[in-house]
Amino acid sequence: MDNNLISVNNVSVNFDYQENFISKKQKIHAVNNINIKIQKGSFFGLVGESGSGKTTLGRAILGANKISSGNVIFHDNERDYDLTNMNKQDLKEYRKKAQLIFQDPYAALSPRMTVRDIIAEPLEVMKITNSRQETDERVRDIAAKCRLNIEHLRRFPHAFSGGQRQRISIARALVSNPKFIVADESVAALDVSIQADILNLLKQLQTELNLTYLFISHDLSVVAHVCDVVAVMYLGHIVEMGPSRQLFKNPKHSYTKALLSSIPSIDPEKRSQAIELKGEIPSALNPPPGCVFRTRCPNPGIDCKGGEIKMGLTEVEPGHWVDQCCAL
Amino acid sequence: MSHLLEVKNLDVKFDTDEGRITAVENISLSVDQGEVLGIVGESGSGKSVTAKSIMKLNPGNTSYNEDAEIILDNENVLQFTSKQDLKKIRGGKVSMIFQEPMASFAPAIKIGAQMVEQLLIHKNINKDEAKSISINMLKRVGIADAEKRFNQYAFELSGGMRQRAMIAMALSTMPKLLLADEPTTALDVTIQAQVINLIKDIIKEYQMGVIFITHDLGVIAQVADHVAVMYLGSVVEKGPVNEILKNPKHPYTKGLLQALPDINNLDAPLSPIPGNIPSPLDRPTGCVFRTRCPHHNPEGKDGKIEMKLIEVEPGHWVDQCGIKCGQNG
User: Fold this and answer.
1) Which of B255, B188, B220, B273 is nearest to A219 (CA)?
2) What whole-number percentage of chain A has pLDDT above 70?
3) CA A130 to chain centre
C-alpha cells in the first residue's frame, strides 16, 4: 500500500461565467484534469503565475470549491474520504483534519477578537473541546508551539507585526489538530527576514506534529527551499511535476525553464539571462487548443504550434513528469 | 559635477495622535543622470516616505527639519510652497510609478484621457499633439494596439499591461527623475522580467535619473548602479551595487542576504533576522538595528553609539556601529 494522504484523480474545476445577463453562458476552465498524489509527511509545492489555477486546486482539495469532475480521496488511517461524495457528518470530520493558512495575515484575523478567541474559535465551532478549561489548555499549547507568548493571547491583532500575525494564523489552523494543511501564499505578504522565520516554523511544526502540506506559492526560490515535491501549473494544467531538486536542477518543460530564468539573480554580474516570455497568460475562457503554453513558448516545435498535441504528462525520469508536448 | 538630485540630512517626522513619529532620520543620497539608485529595506523602513519627500507628497501632518535640503536641478524642493512651483516637480521634472497600477489610475476615466490631461498641464501643446505623444509612448513601452488601449479604462488591462501604461504615462512628460516605488512587486516573475528590461532600456534611451525602491534584493541586483539599504528610517549601508551585495559590512545587510532563499544554493539554511521591526513610536536610540542585531556590540547595545555613516572603501559607506558588529560576525 502506498503512503498517500491525498489522491487527486482527474480533477477539473469549471466556473460558469456570463459577461452580462443577455450574453451566452460560458465556462471558465480553472483547473483541468489534474492528477496528483500527496504523500504523508511531504511538503508538496504548487507553483505558477497568477491565474494558473493553483489556489482553485488547493481550495478544491479542501472541499471549498465544487469539483466539476474527477475525485479527491483523503486517506485517513482507518478510512478513505471521497470529497465529491461526502455527507455532512463526514465533511465536518474532514474540516478538522484539513485546514487552510491564508496569505494576508492582516485580513485573516478579526480585529475585534482577542488572539485567544481567534485561536479558540475553530475548537468552539467544531465542538472539539468540552470545557473552557480544555479549550484554554489547547490554545496555550498550540500558541507555545507557534512561539507566541502567553501574554499575547489577551491582546488584539492590531498590536502585532506581520510575522507575529502569521504565527497566530498558523496556530489557529493547527489548533484542531489537523493532518493536512494548505498554505496558500502564506509567506508572500511578509518581509524577507520574517519570511525565513515562518518557513522554518512550518518545517519544524511539520516534524513535531506529523503534518502534510500543500504549499502554494508563486515564489520559486521559496518552493525550492522548503518543498520535497513540486508541481508547476500553467493555465489550469500541471506542466511539470517531480522531486523538487531534480526538477529545479534539470527542468524539462520550457515554461519551467522560463520561470526559473526569470528569477532576478542576486549577483549583479549575472544580469538578464531571462528567457523572456512574450505576452501574458491567456484567458481561461478560451484556452488555446492543444498545449496551453504554445502561445508563449519560446521554442515551439512544428507539431505543437498547430495545437495538435493534447495535454498530458509523461514520465521522463522516475517520479519526474513533464507535459508530453515539451517532452517530445 | 553637481548631481541631478541631492538629498542632504533629511529628517521626516509625522505628528500623530500617539505622538511624533520619526519616519526618516538624517538621510543623505544623491542620484546622477542616467543612474539608478536602488533603495532596499523592509516595510516600515522609510523608503517610500523618502521618495515622496522629493515631490513633497507626504501628508499634511509631516514636518521636515530646517537644515534639510533636497536639491533637484539646483533648486531646493523643500522650500517650494506655491502650487505653481510644486506643479513643476510633480509630474514635470519628477514622475513616479507605483506598486499597484490599478490604484494609481482613476477607474472611471479612460487611460488616454489621463495621459493627455497631465501632458496638457506640463507641456505647452494642444490636445492632438498630446494624444500622439501618448500613443507613441504606449507603443514604446510595448503595448500592442496602442490606439485601442488609449480609449480603454484601467480595469480592461491586465496587470502587466497596466504597469506598462503607468510607465508610459510617467515618461510622457520626459521627467529628469523617475521615482519607481516597488514597480514590479505586484507582477508575476515572467512579467517582472519584461518590465525590468523595459525600465532599463528606457533609462538608457532617455538618460534620466532613477530611484528604484524595492524590498527584493534580486531586483536591485538586476537594475541598480548604487544601493542604499534602509532600516527603520536610517540608511545603514550604501555604495555601488556590486560592493554591497558581494561584500556587505553591516549586520542588517548580511542578515537580509542570508534570509533570502537562493535557488542556486538549496543546502544553505534559511536564517531569519531574529525579532521584529520595532514600532516607529519606540524607535531605539543610537543604532536603530541594535534590538535585532545578532552580534551584540557591547558599546552599541545600550544605544550610546550614534548613527553615522563612515566610508570604509571608496564609495562604500557603513554605519559606524555596524562596522564594529560586522567585524564580530
Assistant:
1) B188
2) 96
3) 33
Could you tell me how many helices (H) and strands (E) chain A has, helices first?
A: 11, 12
HEC readout, A136-150: HHHHHHHHHHCCCCH
What residues contact A279, with CB distance under 8 A and at least 6 apart?
A295, A296
Residues of A whose CB is below 8 A from B261: 196, 199, 219, 221-222, 224-225
Name the maximum alpha-carbon separation found in chain A: 68
Is A65 within 8 Å of A56 (Cβ atoms)? yes
Alpha helices in A146-231 (DSSP H): 162-174, 192-209, 220-226
Angle between helices A115-125 and A132-145 (to 10 degrees): 120
Angle made by CA atoms B34, B186, A233, in degrees to the nearest 5: 125
Measured in angstroms, the CA of A229 and the nearest CA of chain B are apart by: 14
The chain B residue lying nearest A200, using CA atoms, is B270
- What global pTM score does this model have? 0.86
Contacts of B276 in chain A (CB under 8 A): 161, 163-164, 194
- B265 inside 8 A of chain A by CB: no
Q: How far is B192 from chain A (nearest CA, A)?
A: 8
Q: Does domain B5-93+175-328 have CATH number 3.40.50.300?
A: yes
A232 forms bridges with which residues in the sheet? A47, A240
Distance set, CA B75 to CA A155, A248, B72, B190, B248 (Å): 49, 52, 5, 40, 34
Question: How many CA atoms lie within 13 Å of A48's alpha carbon, on the beta-carbon side?
Answer: 28
Q: Does B275 touch chain A (CB under 8 A)?
A: no
Chain A, nearest residue to B221 by Cα = A268
The CA distance from A222 to the nearest CA of chain B, in Å, is 6
Q: How far is A52 from chain B (nearest CA, A)?
A: 11
The answer to whether A208 faces chain B, any CB pair under 8 Å, is no
Helix (H, G, I), strand (E, B) or coil at B66: coil
Q: B117 CB contacts (<8 Å, ≥6 apart)?
A: none
Answer whether B101's CB lies under 8 Å from B163's CB.
yes
- Interface residue B272 vs chain A (CB under 8 A): yes
User: Domain ranges in chain B?
Assistant: 5-93+175-328, 103-174
Give the model confidence (pLDDT) of B166-225 as tens digits.
999 998 888 999 999 988 887 888 888 888 888 888 888 888 999 999 988 999 999 999
